[in-house]
Amino acid sequence: LQVFDDEGKDVTPHPLFRSDPNTVVPRQGKLLASSAYFGATGSGFLSPFSMHQTSGVNGSLGSFSRSRLLTSYNFSDVQVRQEEIKEWTKEDLDRRVDIYLTETETIWILDMPSVVVSVESEDAGRVLERNRIYVEICKNRPGNDRFVEKMMQTINGAAKNKEVQCDKIIMEDKGMLVTSWDLYDSFNVSEIEPTSKAEGSRATTGKSSKSHTTKEHNQTMLVSSNRGSTTSSLMISESAVLARIHEEEECHSEAILTSENFQQNLFFMERILMENIFQPKLAAYRQFPVLIDPDVTSDMSGTVAAVKEAKEEEHDKEKKDKEEQKDAFVDPSILSDLNKTPEEIVPPRLERLWSYICDLTNGHNVSSMAWSKVNPDLLAVGYGAFDFKEQKKGLACCWSLKNPMWPERIFRCEHGVTALDFSMASPNLLAVGMYDGSVTIYNVRSCNNAALLDSSESSNKHTGPVWQLRWVEQDRGATGDGKKERLICISADGRITEWFIQKRLDCIDMMKIKRTESEKKKLPGEKERKREALISQQAAGMCFDFHPKDTNFYLAGTEEGHIHKCSCSCNDQFLETYRGHKGPVYKVAWNPFSTDMFLSCSADWSIILWHQDSQTPILTFSSATAFVHDVMWSPKSACIFAAVNESRVEIWDLSASILNPVTSCFANPRVKFTSVLFAKNTDCLLVGDSKGEVSVFELQNLAAPNNNKV
């Protein structure tokens, strides 16, 4: 049979195997005898060939014909090895043969090197260097012509088993209360389905005309014959009923948890628990007598009584010793004077009561604090870093004295909060200044944490951090009665702005703080120095404070270390400039009683007392080599003020000493104090630090305030 294409060429397929006529055909016996010799090579060749051969042979020939045909082919390429047959003698069988067992060479079937290297290994440095080089290559890859996108197949890493140690698994027994009506309902539902099936089967038999006794008999027979199916249906129906009951309970419990009444009850319960926990500290804060718990056990009361008796005995003994020393060494004429003075003068001190801190505020820097103008128990705290490198998202939280463990309102800000203040005209409005220069107003009365107004759409918004922000009340003058409230901000871009609350926040500039040259005395014979070129004509504003009586005047502290007295009527020039600090002025504060005096603190480690009519400092206080971040006058005394530097908080009483503070409290290690605030109605002090904690201190043993003495 031949095959030709369209052009007449012979395209007949040639067989893969061609026999050589010159070779001698081997015998059948030797071929079959040497089949073991072929092994892996011969079997692969013989198997397809035999299948091809047997396919063309008639099936009726049987197995003998197939073997005859198989031997008729000539295997010229197969070399048959004739095994030499050796006969074993009796001596060979009795001879002793030594067999030595040794280990064979290890054959590695799979070797996948690890992709993880220990830090303590010798190759750790080399691997880190390779990783660094790879990261640099990945950074330089975009837009580089030396790198080409190419797909390749990689091998997945082998899974590894890692054992870890965990806590002991505690098993608990759970129970469920089931009432009698639950049992009745569940069994009643389970009986409905088999009864309906039995009634259907009876209807199909056509025996509905029989008596009641016959029907009961048929029903009994049907139930007895289908006992297995009835049991399974009972189990299925019971499980369905239990699942339905469980779903109803979950829906009912979820509805209870989300109900307003339940939330209100939880709120009241939380208040009660907080008052029970913090009752002694809150009583000390409000200067109430501390109540003793009547539920104290007898053992505890006995221990407390024993400790008190021991302290009283020791105190009496010390008194006797002092009296004996006085009688022995003191002139009797002086004893009368000594008896008039108190025997022990207790120095003032700061007693820590509690702290406003939670997991949400932990680690955030406390930048500013402000009391509510209406509610003296509501405190607003701003959280944000002062340094550019430490910037992260900020927080503005409203804390209440009734719950020192969690804030009442939490406002999340995209940038760090640097200043905040409550409004007097609208006590529910809280203005917040941020590090990026934006100003936002929140409604603390609403449970919605979204901002009410912000300065994002204002074209005159600040380009630097808003370091201080304050609501100021000013007289309307002849235009109207009462007072008008304005929102004033000072920023690092050198602008003091007034913000208007309309459909959106917008501002105008009250003052642009210009840089002033420092006055340096010229030495005799010294040539005039060339003026240094300024990078910016405006100085960064850091703080401000309005006069307590005449709100038309205010002070502004700058980053240069100067304090400018400004007027709201004139925005072109300063009324006075006070030069005394060598670093940025962080805070200025008018004295609320002696309105001609004001304080300033700076990064030059000093606090300066000024008189507005004198450009030279009256007193300079410097007790530690650290930045003084904040200072505040006491609302009850004209001579007492508090200051915080990075290492401690200090209480100064100018009537007692102008050289050293009367008391101080040091900060914890690696913690810096950042802000200070006096309580309104009590002798307490609030101090914020760099870890997000606002500590409440009680001022003890301070001299009685005398507002008439200035």
From TrEMBL:
PROSITE patterns: WD_REPEATS_2. Its main location: cytoplasm. Residues 219-229 have a biased composition (Polar residues). GO terms for cellular component: axonemal dynein complex; dynein axonemal particle. SMART domains: WD40. Residues 308-326 have a biased composition (Basic and acidic residues). WD repeats lie at residues 578-620. It comes from the Eukaryota. One of its GO terms (molecular function) is dynein heavy chain binding. This is Dynein axonemal intermediate chain 4. Residues 1-20, 194-229, 307-326 are annotated as: Disordered. It holds the Pfam family WD40. One of its GO terms (biological process) is cilium movement. It is found in: Cytoplasm, Cytoskeleton, Flagellum axoneme; Dynein axonemal particle. Keywords: Cell projection, Cilium, Cytoplasm, Cytoskeleton, Flagellum, Repeat, WD repeat.
